Amino acid sequence: MIFDRKLSNSVKGIAIIWMLLHHLFAPEILKEGIVDTAPFSFEKFSCLCGQLKICVAIFVFITAFGITRWFKKVQPQKDKLFGYSLSRCFKLECNFLIIYILGLIGHILFGEGILEIYNVNDNCFVAVLYALIDAMGLNTQFGTPSLNATWWYMSIAHFMIFLIPVLVVIYERIGRLLPVIVLFVGIPHPHLNPYFFALVMGIFSAQDNFFERTYDVFSQINSQSVKKFIRGLEFMGCVFAVLLLIYLRRQTNLTYYIDGIIPFFVCYACMILKDIFSFLHSVLEFIGMYSMNIFFIHTFIYFYFFKEFIYWSKNWMLIFMTLLAVCLLVSVIIECIKKWSGFYSLIGTISKRIEEGDQKLHNE
């Protein structure tokens, strides 16, 4: 079995579910008394949801894995890397800009003008400047206000798009020495540095075909019943390992290293899940297909605009299912509009021209 885009989406599905739980049931929200955590105790539920911030490391890992796999497949010339990265960054920005516009309209409809949103009193010029910075996903780099507090991840996303191809080239030169070096050496980026080990481990997994090689260990077994039994044991082993690592993440100061290891078990568990429980895998894959949109919009829905609606039931499971259902519905509508409007065709054409333009500059 090859770890393909469908498996990547199922991993993203798990990561986005964990992110929703992490945000929905943050300590400050639980303290408001609007959530019934039964059958879990308040303390244990709060602790578990707090540790689910590991979702960030999973997104970093799977992004590095995907870009590296693309790099291996296409094998672009080194002088084309910047053009490819610029093109990828442009696509991300265009998708983000649509959500930004919708978010801005939402804020205005719910009673806030642009001056109030960016807290600049009567200075229209500064408000517009802040809005442009925010629309490009650069507010974290500049330390300016934002429509959405969870968009800080864009600072990581931009940087990774240009950094990962460089690290892939380095990995091709020094191999597995790179992950060893990263164990002791960080990167001067305050938001990416905590996940730098996870990023490099994603590159390692893709370059060394780690998941395929691990999966093939038991693929030669002829008996289907024995094979399924072993796959079941592997899956339970992955679940146990993730739970143990999450516990250690809270109890130790080894978060940097643990965040680079947990994605291994999550990814391999998804691989096994496709084998033994394909329906659940398909559900996770469907959710993961819309993970980018869900990431961009979920805070608007559960916190800024419709908090009372999302938390109406007070039951944590119903709260989660309500937010997930609304996010998926909005995401599907957004994607349908993009397809019908020719958005992807236009963006694809411009992206190719960006790549070609960069190549012409190099040739000159």
Concise account of the structure shown:
With 364 residues, this protein is mostly helical. The protein has 19 helices and no strands.
Describe the structure.
This protein has helices at residues 5-24, 27-30, 42-51, 54-74, 81-109, 114-117, 124-135, 139-142, 153-174, 177-182, 196-207, 210-215, 224-251, 255-276, 278-289, 291-305, 307-310, 316-341, 343-363. The chain is an all-alpha fold. α5 (81-109) runs parallel beside α16.
Give the helix/strand layout.
Layout: H1 5-24, H2 27-30, H3 42-51, H4 54-74, H5 81-109, H6 114-117, H7 124-135, H8 139-142, H9 153-174, H10 177-182, H11 196-207, H12 210-215, H13 224-251, H14 255-276, H15 278-289, H16 291-305, H17 307-310, H18 316-341, H19 343-363
Element-by-element helix/strand order: HHHHHHHHHHHHHHHHHHH
Separation of the first and last Cα atoms: 44 Å
Query: What's the shape?
Result: globular
Beta-strand residue percentage: under 5%
Q: How much helix, percentage-wise, in residues?
A: over 70%
Q: Count the helices. How many?
A: 19
Number of strands: 0
Poorly predicted runs are none
Q: Give the overall average pLDDT.
A: 88
Largest beta-sheet details: none
Q: Key terms for this structure?
A:
364 residues; mainly alpha
